[in-house]
Amino acid sequence: MRRGIAASALVVALAVSMAACGSSGSSSDGKADGPVTLTYWDTSNATNEAPNYQELVKKFEAANPEIKVDFVNVPFDQAQNKLQTAMGAKGAPDVFRSEVGWTAAFAKAGFLEPLDGTPATADAGSFQPTLVQQAKYDGKTYGVPLVTDTLGLLYNKELFTKAGVAAAPKTWDELKTAAAAVKEKTGVDGFWLKAADGYYAMPFLFGEGTDTVDAAGKKITVASPEAVKAIETYKTMFTSPGTAKADVTTDAYAHMMDAFNSGKVAAIIQGPWEITNIYKGSAFADKTNLGIAPVPAGASGKAGAPTGGHNISVYAGSDKAHKVAAEKFAAFMTSAESQAFIAKKNSTLPTRFDAFTPEVKADPGIAGFQAVLASAKPRPELPEYSSLFASLGTNLGKVVQGTGTEDGLNTVATDYAKLLPGFAK
Question: For the segment 260-318, what is each residue's pLDDT rounded down to a tens digit?
């Protein structure tokens, strides 16, 4: 999941020797003197998702009686900082669920164990190649893809039909037209966009053929003419007829989801992590009422949303026995059988081809997002990339409240220059 990414950059040096942080009780050949207890930090939703991961962990323990797992659920919005603090001092988990944007940064800092040639990556060829690439840093693999996601246009088919909207809008202009029709014919808002959040603004940048940065060219592009055009379009999604006004409160995300799930708004930009909650809403008691389509295209004709998701990573500071056990655990959690199990329980997208079984694809939410995933944009191998969303979100909140687009984006570019020495503005 890509929500609430922490502001701090993760590229820091190790504060203490890894040897001082590691677990104890192993021999030189990596075999434990007794049963191994792994500490696993899970960052999934505590209510809807974590219980299913706990069930999967119990299956692992049953198949591996010599390994016990201490399952710790850590709120996603706190996990990045908690992990960074723990791995830089003491108390780090042996293995954990890492958002894809964190993996390269943690690897650069020396916190993660390379997994190439271990049981964890034995099935690497079964995974979608772009997802494996996102788990790499400096040519080495530091995570195994667990789940993947992206953003799509989610819409209420019944409301669209009542408004005479026959198909999912393919451009932002078409979406604004549809929103106005929904408002006129049904009385509810046609579209709600999460404001002041850099991640949800990325489809607008991609739609104009740009990004926050050009990682390969070491150039900051967030204030380019293309980016300015993208954010001007973004601003209209809060002011056009039938669109919800910008909500910049701390509860904005919950407000948006409550409105969509109850049929008080017809369309949103959202990811598959919310599908199980959406199905519980009164508007989607019939699951087939949920429409899923790619995010609309920009004026350039291009469309796309960021690829998100989570990897399983192993802490470099654990002793050898715990690393060996953690690698076995990572392999189990990302196996085709385990991914299919989680997909059916949580309606999340598997990362490997052989986990898309007929039963998994029978879930209309999964089937819908599987088609959307083809247009998702992989993240560049830039450790600081996930930290870029914070300044963008903060300043977009100011832009939708009256700050000029160019002024707002220039402020973001200045912030980026501090995070990315060597990048040209």
Answer: 999 999 999 999 999 999 999 999 999 999 999 999 999 989 999 999 999 999 999 99
Cα 395–chain centre separation: 21
Residues across the chain: 425
Q: How far is CA 77 from the centre of its chain?
A: 12
Q: What tens digit of pLDDT does each residue of 208-231 get?
A: 999 999 999 999 999 999 999 999
Q: Which two tokens stand for residue 125?
A: 């060829």
Q: Which tokens sit at 111?
A: 């916190």
Which residue from 404, 422, 393, 411 is spatially nearest to 195, judged by alpha carbons? 393
Please state, in angstroms and rounded to a whole number, the distance separating the CA atoms of residues 218 and 25.
45
189 close to 244: Cβ distance less than 8 angstroms: yes
Note whether 307 and 134 are within 8 A (CB). yes
Nearest of 235, 232, 238 to residue 256 by alpha carbon: 238
Residue 30 CA to residue 323 CA, distance in Å, equals 8
Element spanning 41, H or E = strand 36-42
